[in-house]
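Reference record
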Amino acid sequence: MPPKKSNLNNARTREARRKRIKRAHQLAEQIESRNPAQRIRTAEGHAQESQEQCNERLQENIIRTRAAGERDITTVGAQEQ
């Protein structure tokens, strides 16, 4: 029987599996050096966006976070029944 469809198809792709394996074998020093580099790239991207783009991005994040919270609440409610 094939697995059920879900939005988490990324967990099954070859590329996702390759990345998980690569990250699992990284040393602590490599992980520590990767995190600040990612923060720098994110900050540079945010510095280049306009105020309107920034507000849109923040609003999308708020909506996404609220939707995730509501999904969690409904999931817990369904499990309790």
